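User: Please run a holo structure prediction.
Assistant: Happy to. Please share the sequence and the ligand.
User: Here you go; the ligand is S-adenosylmethionine.
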Amino acid sequence: MNSSLPPLDGLEVLSARLLEQLRERFQGAAFDETVFGEAECLPGQAERARLPIMRWLLERRQAPWAGFARLFVYHMPVTPEEMRDLMGEELASALAGAGLFMPCANAPDQLRSRLRIMPFRGLWCLGDLADGGGDAVMTPGITTLQLAWLMPLDMAGSVLDLGCGSGALALLAAARGAPRAVGCDLNARAVRMARFNARLNGLDAEFLAGDMYAPVLGRRFDLVVSQPPYVILPAGTQPVAYLHGGPRGEDLVLRALQGLGQALAPGAMAAILADTPLPVQEHLTARYRRALGEARLDLAIALSPAPPLEPTAFTYSQVVDESLGERYQAEVARYLEHLSGLDTPGFRHAAILVRAPALGVSRPALSMSFPVAGFGQSVGRSVEAFFASVDLSAVPADRLLATTVRLNPLGRWSLDMDGPVLPPDAPRKLRFQGGALAVDQSLPEATCFLLHCLADSADVASGLATYAQACSASLDQIEHQALDFLRHALRSGILEPQPAPDGG
Ligand SMILES: C[S@@+](CC[C@H](N)C(=O)[O-])C[C@H]1O[C@@H](n2cnc3c(N)ncnc32)[C@H](O)[C@@H]1O
């Protein structure tokens, strides 16, 4: 363990009553992540140059949430009086006694927090400052939030948070009703932090130390979420547990995929988030499919643009030298050198979605990737709808004919016109908004009409009848080909099953 990291022993023996008081103080102060806004999406890993702006703004806000944000998110000094106003005498002195605060070097009458506490979806997660080095534990950031958006709002099954860090995702699962929420991390400090966070939030979750799936070998889960360390590791850079995933940044991502066959229960899903280098020789889906091995699992990769490489180098180099001095500059050079030697046409920010077939489903596994504009809050709904569509694509024809389908609600029709007159057979474009798991399509007019017939009818059978009649054909003549197209449209996310009126 990195000996320069603050000890946790004092915090670990704080009573449940005091932790409940702290939680109530946070709640009462509305200390939640919305206060940080879009501009400050990765506190601590954000451009150091931007931090003074956040600090300047926070110094001018009198609200209690701003006091907590100064103290626990932005590493700013507060006076002992402010501390007492925020937390009350008993709590402030208990936290001080637990070693959470230290005097400021240039203002010894003021205190800073030695650890960070980040609000996250109604929870609060203790972790290390981002520049803590080696075994520092990451607090939830924007990428943790992206994974949270992929998780169902009500969770009835078991959840594994692989590489749990502060335990944020396992705790969120527990808060959303998961009867069994487990987090694993190689870093023993992360496991201690996550156990503390379970107590801080009054939630029940199990946290285990060990390499990848080793602590839960033989157990299966209904949902696996993971954001393995995925940052490239240049030669000469000191590895940081929460950041680095080998020279290409993909070592842990591939290992997370390799274990899924053993970890997913029937019908279960995994969501793995990573910045990933595009391979040169093969398609990314082929590479990840290989990592999944023999297991018959659906693989759908949502790919959004990753941040440009140079700013990424700046961001990760700040971790070694907050002052942006000589060590920072040497580190930036190491990253850029390493990036220039990497065999990849570029990086993508990927949500790798893997699904185990439900019991009794015996269709071939799906492998595909989608470009998406970003991972907004709507992606979670899209994922559920997408896998429901894929399942439907594999049912026998008689069941398909009795189903009601509709166009993906995030799809929009448009016409590509070269000139003022539209040729009669000009393809229509079906474009999907950010958050949709579907590929933009260019479709001939007849196919568009078939889609409309299918999506606007009470069931597929009557949609096909309408289409056949319009084509002056018999149902028999068109059915086979039309059902093939319907299956393709379901697998591509163009069409989806119509949800029951109650949303179930
Ligand atoms: C990017 S952080 C994610 C933390 C947290 N899940 C989140 O989203 O905020 C990656 C985590 O994986 C852990 N980790 C690194 N190597 C690991 C391994 N071989 N097995 C298990 N966990 C590992 C790190 O310690 C770190 O906590």
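Residues 317 and 332 are 6 Å apart (CA to CA).
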